[in-house]
Amino acid sequence: MPSSADQGTSVQFATLAAITVVTGVVSSLGAPLVPTVAEEQHVPLSTAQWVLTAALLAGAVVTPVLGRLGTGRRRRPVLLGGLVVVLAGTVLSALPLGIGPMIAGRALQGVGMALAPLAFAVARDLWSGPELLSRLALLSVATVSGAGLGYPVSSLVADHFGIGGAYAFGAGLIGTATLLALRHLPSAPDSARQPVDVGGAVLLCTGTLGLLLAVSQGERWGWTTPPTVLAGGGGLLLVLAWVGWSAGRARRGRSSLVDLRTATRRGVRAPNAVTVAISVSLYGLFTLVVVVLQADGSAGFGLDAGVAVSGLALVPYAVASIASNRIALVMARGVGSRLLLPLGCVVFGSSLLILVAWHDAVWQTFLAMAVGGLGGGLTFSSMAMLIVPNVAAEETSSAMAFNQLLRYLGFSVGSALTVALLETWGADAGAFRATGLTMAGICLVAGALATLERTTARAA
User: What is the pLDDT of residues 204-227, one digit of tens each?
Assistant: First the structure.
């Protein structure tokens, strides 16, 4: 850990921020472009949807592997290699080669989702003390706000220059971040080489892939059809097998892909649990806002505002997330960082309650998104502040990668669960309210559990 005399430079932090923001922007080049991809490529929406699904699947699969590979002396080459892969994927998607290469390029772009945990590990090498907490909070929010700002920006570029132009824009951003990293990204301190648990990687990655396929494609395939049941059931069995595999390696004193003892220890398990809850509710909020903005009112609700307004709805979320970072830092220095999780859950749950109660005008949905940004910013900005001090330095990237994996799983479950609940309850105004209340309840329960853990830890 560096002393106060040899903290990292502002240029090095700008480089890490650029990596997290730009990879967040590029990862968001899927969702708002799906209708345009379907139109330009002359394919059905179900096929175009893979420009979103491919990146999410790839990101979830490679995140724990890169988290382990990026420990110690291998961190710089792994980070640079990841940026090059993302750049290649973005260029491939920008070329007029058809839907197949575009989806393949999006899968390569998904590698960028795994780079944020490595940036957190670099920050831990460069800063310490209160300065480290500040840097971690800023990088945490940058990851989320980059994706939020990428939605309206990519939609705007695509409107003027088409899909190829949007991905070319993303390639320019990634190229700039790669050059900054080549110039300013420091080498990691010398440390013992961390072996990669190949067997664990195969089990976890394959299991995660199966679960995400079932969740993301269940609506299209049918939730009770053989492909969905086989993918989801097989994925769950493989994940359980990975848990047993990792526990066995721990008993024998051997390292595993993710140290489950670290992931479930006091001070780490609450952030991981809240990550899942907030991620599920976050995509629930996003989905409900898009539904109410684009619905034509025939089902008893809807503003018929169009796709462009739906993209703009993420701007207040991103701006509020950035603003809440400063609030989180002030609170962490004044009353401690552990209050951030329960407070963030309550605030985020309030955003869903606002949307349920008031959704008769566009500004009301934007208000709900802004409140959601405050709650999401408080929780996501505190994840690194809470997890990093409670894990060993050599486990930083792996622990944050596991937290990131939980986030992606939560995103997928939240999106699919919201749609499933809306359809199950009738897809009318009553179903809209019930779904929103369910998502708010998930947040409030997570906040209560985080408070209980904080109380128990204080008593201990």
Answer: 888 888 888 888 778 778 888 999
